[in-house]
Write a structure and sequence with these properties.
It is built from twelve helices and seven strands. By secondary structure, it is α+β, with helices and mostly antiparallel strands. Helix 7 packs across helix 8 and helix 7 packs across helix 9.
């Protein structure tokens, strides 16, 4: 949950999640629709889908005992695998998250950026690994980055490894790691179809693999071929997906084109218990308000 999401945002979701799925087996046995409803609002929904798949994988076999075993679990990459292998299995496997990458850049005077910096940080983490207590060592490195070697205003006078820090010795702590180039973003307009029945139910469809919000319930939409002109009665919601700045545009008179299958009518409790991406819920609420219809 903390991948790409701040801890303060995660905490209430985590509490609700653990109440609903207190064990790996409970998560594995849950229906994916229910799982995604609990993930709703956190964004990056593939994380929840992978977590559910990982739980099913673990519940059906033996728990991993080495790094390769953890990497074979759906959704577990090098960082998480290194953390689990070192903390759970006691193996001398390094890990690199943003905190460790920053520590490595400053201590080892790494001036690269992007993938090159990440590779160098992994090599550094492997070189300094403490084999007799790898789990605590890895957690200490992460805490050092989170609490002391912070992105701004690092607490260098309190740093326990200051004597080994090449950036401190050179007076260049504030220059490392080097700023990453800003990603190039582009705007995308989506023409959204909104239909409601007299009882207030909304016409939704499940987004298919390969589309944004795959596996989630969305209002049917089609991607506009060019920048759309927004009319005075149109309802617009803005969101960001990876490197795309998206406008969801719904017009009372625009029926658009469906994508992803037949409409399913959802309202009330049914709507509350399925995963609808936050931008679409915002659009539905704004549309209902504009039309003087009942709230979502």
């Amino acid at each position: 949950m903390c991948q790409q999401t701040q801890i303060a945002t995660v905490l209430p979701y985590y509490a609700r999640w653990m109440a609903a799925f207190p064990t790996v087996r409970a998560l594995a046995e849950a229906d994916l629709e229910r799982v995604m409803a609990h993930w709703q609002g956190l964004g990056y929904y593939a994380r929840g889908q992978r977590l559910h798949a990982a739980a099913r994988d673990l519940a059906s076999g033996q728990w991993p005992t080495d790094l390769a075993g953890w990497r074979a679990i759906p959704g577990i990459g090098p960082y998480t695998a290194g953390a689990l292998a070192s903390i759970v299995n006691g193996l001398p496997t390094p890990l690199v998250d943003g905190n460790v990458e920053r520590v490595a850049a400053r201590i080892a005077a790494l001036d690269s950026t992007g993938a090159e910096l990440r590779r160098a940080a992994w090599a550094w983490a492997q070189a300094v690994m403490v084999a007799n207590d790898p789990g605590n060592w890895n957690q200490a490195l992460m805490e050092l980055g989170a609490k002391v070697c912070t992105p701004r205003r690092p607490r260098c006078p309190e740093c326990p490894v200051q004597a080994h820090c090449q950036s401190w010795q050179a007076g260049r702590v504030d220059q490392r790691p080097a700023p990453r180039p800003k990603p190039v973003t582009r705007g995308v307009d989506l023409c959204v179809t909104i239909t409601r029945r007299a009882d207030g139910a909304w016409g939704l469809t499940k987004s298919v693999p390969g589309q944004w919000w795959a596996g989630l319930w969305v209002l049917p939409w089609t991607r506009a071929g060019e920048v759309m002109t927004v009319g005075p009665k149109d309802v617009v919601v803005r969101t960001v997906v990876t490197q795309h700045r998206i406008r969801l545009i719904a017009s009372p008179a625009d029926l658009g084109a469906m994508t992803g299958g037949e409409l399913v009518w959802l309202g009330g409790v049914d709507l509350a218990n399925v995963a609808v991406p936050t931008p679409f819920r915002r659009l539905m609420a704004a549309y209902a308000k504009a039309q003087g219809e009942p709230k979502v």
